[in-house]
Amino acid sequence: MPEGPELHLASRYINAACAGLVFCGPVEKSEVSKNPEVPFRSDAYRISAASRGKEVKLTLAPLRAEAAAAAASGERGRAGPQQPMDLVFRFGMSGGFTLAPEAELPKHAHLRFYTRERPRRALCFVDLRRFGRWEVQGTWQPDRGPCVLLEYEQFRENVLKNLSDKAFNKPICEALLNQKFFNGIGNYLRAEILYRLKIPPFEKARTVLEALQHRKQSPGLTLSKKVKLRRENPDLVELCHTVPLEVVHLGGKGYSLEHSADAAAFEEWLQCYSVPGMKALRDSNGRTIWFHGEPGPMAPKGEKSLKKRSRANTDPEPPNPKVTKPASQGGRSREKVTKRSGREKGKELVQGAENAQSNETRKPKARSRRKASASQESPKSEAPAAGRKRRASARRSAGTAATTRSRRAKVE
After folding, report:
1. Which of 46, 184, 290, 346 has CB 3.0 to 4.6 Å from 148, enough for a Cys bridge?
2. Selection from 95, 153, 144, 159 nearest residue 124 by Cα
3. What pTM was estimated for this model as a whole?
4. Is 268 labeled as catalytic in the residue annotation?
5. pLDDT tens digit string along 223-246?
């Protein structure tokens, strides 16, 4: 999921790609997106961007001179609203921006801003999984804390002054995802930060952070020595600022679902998150935390490494469609066949119509076999009971004939 560094890189990309470009016309939204329409139209406007934590704000600013020229040429009705509009984006799992030619728009471009040049290009909000959101005339969410990247001093003060908050009763790995205090930290950043400090992910957050309130440096140290000590021995709050900065300095897009040179550089930078040999557990929110060493006293009880669990479930045994009972002493066998859905039955009918010859060779069901054998049975294959009846009848006929012959002999 894109985190603070990725959204900051996206805002920098927008400002660099759109510098000097003039956009015009309406803003187009894809039909499949459930986000709101953007009621903005202008014959000339520019786009700029800013980031804060896990949010990006786009500002659409109409050009007054261009609008006046359009009005003078009789195109006042097309100019549309002439007030700037802010759009606040949250990227979800896979959101991001790209500038592309109109003839080569990305497949999942759910919001498009077109340039006035010819051939046209479009700044696109691309979101493969469609979890991203935008808000028309939006503002920074008030329940988000200061940005870990751009507002470090306010961020640090907000954390250390509110350690009595119930959010810090949780394990440190879960507290780091609370955007009220750690705006911009996400799943891969928390793993990297805790790994570097060798802090168990399921240690109580307040226990970890309270020690920072009393951290003091010798008053006799010079400023340069203080800075050097902080660099050599950073605390957790400092790493929440410097580790995201490392991702920003990598350039590219940072964390991405795409396989590219940017993604390769980022994956090489990772030391813990999804790295072979590391352990993984799910926290109480169902999020996977990667770590090394012991998990900590607040680890979920009875949980095993997700890596081992996933291997155990990769090749489950296929379900047995039929359960056959053994034949009884009387020679009768019964089969218990599981019920099939209507879709499977319809599929079998179609296959039966197309493969009639192969179906003729299939064995019929038990009941149909019994009926067929009864109707096509030869005299030699009669049931034992029928044979006994016929032999008894023959003996009775033979006895009657012998009695008749003896009577005739007496008469004669």
Report:
1. 184
2. 95
3. 0.69
4. no
5. 565 555 566 689 999 999 999 999
